[in-house]
Design a protein that fits this description.
single chain, mainly alpha, 0% strand, elongated
């Protein structure tokens, strides 16, 4: 029984990745820009670090918008009353 449940969970996770292919890309971009910003702050370049932190906010917002838009498009609307 556990085998069936695990394979079903894997199938559902794969389906989510297929429906949201840009969300993992957005998450990686967010992490990359955050890392670059922290490195630039550490090196003393506060102007570049500030620009990268602003860019991180934009990329992170785009990722969240993709998640919400894709969920709405496929009918997984959490605000819709059952």
């Amino acid at each position: 029984m556990g085998e069936v449940e695990r394979s079903l969970e894997e199938l559902l996770e794969e389906k989510k990745r297929v429906r949201n292919p840009l969300v993992p890309v957005g998450a990686l971009l967010t992490a990359g820009v955050l890392t670059a910003g922290l490195i630039s702050f550490r090196q003393g370049n506060s102007h570049l670090g500030q620009m990268l932190m602003r860019a991180r906010v934009v990329v992170q917002g785009a990722t969240v918008a993709l998640m919400v838009g894709t969920a709405y498009y496929y009918g997984d609307n959490p605000w819709k009353s059952s």
